Request: fold
Amino acid sequence: MPVDVRAALPADLAAIAAIWHAGWHDGHDGHVPEALAAARTEASFRERAAARLPDTSVAVVDGEVAGFVVVAEDEVEQVYVAAHHRGTDVAPAVLAEGARLAHDRGHDRAWLAVATANARARRFYEREGWTDEGPFDYPAEGPDGPIVVACHRYVLTATD
Reply:
């Protein structure tokens, strides 16, 4: 089915939050500090989705929000796809949109952070042409300040 990527609308918030909550726990549980996993409740994803709506694009398949991407400056900050749309054209579409937005905003390189132990995501980004620049400590947003997560930094230059 065709994937339509567009700017997120307020009507998309419930779908974005649900995809984000499920996908985040699929990819992060057991791979990040317990304090961060505990902070990532359904309510927290609803709040975070609403706060980031202006920076969010969604992929729509057959009228349904199937995935989304959040871009902050040059960082492709969030990339998530509904479980039943994984393995389709949705993930490549939202990832490409994230890189395009970062590059259109004048950045030569887009980057994203991936939890070191999230092997599935790391393989996906590499298949999509992103380069692993190595490990770093990512300051994930926590309820009382940043929570450090061991990650790898992936980059894509505008010419890639």
User: Anything to note?
Assistant: The chain has one domain: 4-157. Residues 4-157 form a domain with the Aminopeptidase fold (CATH 3.40.630.30). The chain has a mean pLDDT of 96. The first helix runs from residue 13 to 28.
